[in-house]
Every structure is written in structure tokens, then in C-alpha cells.
Amino acid sequence: MEEHYLKKIINDNFLDFWFRFLESKKVLKETQKSDTAFTEIWSELLAYEGRIFEELVLSIMIEENPLDIKFSKAGKYWNRKGDTEIDAVFLDAGDKKAYLFEVKIIKEKINAKLLQNLMRKGLQIPELKDYELIVKTAFAGKDDIVLN
Predict the structure, then answer these.
(1) I need a surface site. Which of 32, 85, 122, 135 has the fewest CB within 10 A?
(2) Integer angstrom CA distances of residue 17 from 8, 63, 101
(3) Residue 60 and residue 67: Cα distance in Å, rounded?
(4) From CA 8, how far away is CA 34, in angstroms rounded?
């Protein structure tokens, strides 16, 4: 399976946020265009939060394995065309199982259509044709990350 990983240069989330949003908009603030800076930051913030949340879930799954999934490979998946993205994939090469995770901050965004789409994406990955595909979700609960 071809894997592509986003590599962050800065691993500290605070510093990553600072340089991504505040430092990059410094010129706008200095030229009295704080409203423009705020609008730009606000428009990009939700996507940024989603990416950070995906990284957090993937990290917890790898380090703590709360669902007790046996896996030999783990990571995000994108195909070369960029039209198939899966938030988290865990492969159990021995038992030929692939766990595909959709990660959302808001539980209400998870529905049957989204899960069907996740399964469709998994079926499009040639390397997984002999694998049993198991669709899972992760979302932010009241006090914790909820993994289903």
C-alpha cells in the first residue's frame, strides 16, 4: 500500500499554530489590517483543527491502541491522484484486515453516507483487495475522543 504522510516541521501544536496563523499574518496587523488577518485566520481555522485532531487520534491509536486492534502498519492514506483520502488506516497483514477510520470533530457529521463513502474509498485501494475492510469512526465526545 502506498502511504503518504504529512510531515510537520514543528511538532509543538502551539508553535505550529503560532507560525501558521499569527506570525504569517503579522504584516497585516502591522499595516492596520487586523480585520483582514482575523477573517483569513477564521476561514482556515476549521480545516486546521480537523487536521490536528486527525493527527491526535492517529497518535492515540498507535501509542495506546484503545480498541485493541492488531496492526502491522498505520497511517493516513492518499492516492497519487489526490482524490482518495482516508484519515487513518490500520493494517493487520497477518489476518488480512484493514481498519479504515473517518475522524471528525463533530459527531453529527458522521452518518451512513459518510461511512459508505469510506468503504467505497477502501475498495478503490488495489493493495487492499484481499483484505477484510472494517469501517470505524472517531470523534470528539464530551470529555474524550470516542472511537467506534
Answers:
(1) 32
(2) 11, 24, 25
(3) 10
(4) 27
Structure confidence by residue, pLDDT tens digits, 64-101 = 988 888 999 999 888 888 778 899 999 999 899 999 99
Residue 92, C-alpha cell as written in the block: 493487520
End-to-end, the C-alpha distance of the chain in Å comes to 24
**Number of structural domains, the chain?**
1
| AA letter at 133 | L
Phi then psi dihedrals of residue 44, to 5 deg: -100, -10
Q: CB-based contacts of 72: which residues, under 8 Å, 6+ apart? A: 91, 92, 93, 94
At 29 the pLDDT is: 78
Residue 105: Cβ-neighbour burial (10 angstroms; 0-12, 13-18, 19+): middle
Look at residues 137, 130, 66 and name the one whose alpha carbon lies nearest to residue 93: 130
Average pLDDT, the chain: 83
Please report the sign of the dihedral spanned by the C-alpha atoms of residue 66, residue 70, residue 73, residue 76.
Answer: negative
- Amino acid residing at 13: N
Structural domain for 59, as ranges: 1-148
Assess contact for 138 and 66: CB atoms under 8 A.
no
For the entire predicted model, the pTM comes to 0.74
